[in-house]
Inverse folding.
């Protein structure tokens, strides 16, 4: 089984987001939306729903009118495929390439690949500057922009909101946290400063470690899990801290996938 965690550059229109949810059915495992980021993270099961979501979002939104604090190259901004057992990383690579071919040929949207070839941050820095798309036109689509299509291991997307702090402080903490296992941004989100993270090797640096690190440098308002967490990452954290860290058994990949399978069986 493959998981696909699509990031859409829209987080503030409840009616349109509800229409996207309705189109996905049981394959939607989780949805996290943020109006200030103007971004929604759809966690999906399988590959068919990824194409459904891409088509719907392509027809619904326009990147030229988009504003939000999160970096983006397109409406369907990031499409990573993640292998869950018993699938393999090669299965994720195949799904990535097939999706990029679909998006470029059927939607006319240029696609940049990430994974073994290059990282997502590299694409954000170099796209259309000194890096051409791997699939599709050499220029951004006028309303959809471009898509970053990837194959990657499981990661944890995680935000920590600071209390009575500044963007400068969030950026300082982000720089201190940044490592081979943690990608970070310091962002101004509404009236609050936020340390936004991708924990790309959560076995080395997980939610508990980043929370405690940030707490050494600033007062924390709250933590926020974006999407789902693997059960084995949760198992490494004392249950007494789950609520503080915005974690629960119901927010695991395994729990939501099992609920989806029960729905399909009924």
């Amino acid at each position: 089984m493959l998981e696909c965690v699509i990031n859409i550059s829209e987080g503030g229109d409840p009616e349109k987001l509800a229409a996207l949810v309705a189109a996905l059915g049981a394959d939607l495992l989780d949805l996290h939306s943020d109006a200030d980021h103007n971004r929604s993270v759809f966690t999906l099961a399988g590959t068919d729903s990824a194409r459904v979501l891409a088509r719907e979002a392509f027809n619904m939104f326009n990147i030229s009118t988009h504003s939000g604090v999160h970096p983006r190259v397109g409406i369907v901004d990031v499409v990573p495929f993640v292998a869950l057992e018993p699938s393999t990383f090669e299965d994720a690579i195949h799904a990535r390439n097939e999706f990029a071919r679909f998006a470029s040929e059927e939607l006319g949207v240029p696609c940049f690949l990430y994974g073994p070839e290059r990282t997502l941050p590299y694409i954000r820095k170099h796209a259309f500057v000194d890096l051409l798309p791997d699939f599709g036109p050499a220029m951004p689509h006028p309303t959809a922009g471009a898509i970053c299509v990837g194959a990657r291991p499981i990661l944890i997307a995680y935000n920590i909101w600071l209390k009575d702090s500044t963007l400068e402080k969030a950026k300082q903490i982000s720089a201190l946290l940044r490592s081979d296992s943690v990608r970070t941004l310091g962002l101004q989100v509404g009236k609050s400063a936020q340390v936004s993270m991708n924990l790309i090797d959560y076995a080395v640096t997980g939610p508990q470690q980043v929370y405690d690190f940030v707490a050494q440098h600033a007062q924390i308002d709250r933590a926020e899990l974006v999407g789902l967490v693997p059960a084995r990452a949760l198992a490494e954290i004392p249950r007494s801290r789950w609520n503080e860290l915005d974690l629960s058994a119901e927010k695991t990949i395994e729990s939501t996938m099992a609920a989806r399978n029960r729905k399909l069986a009924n």
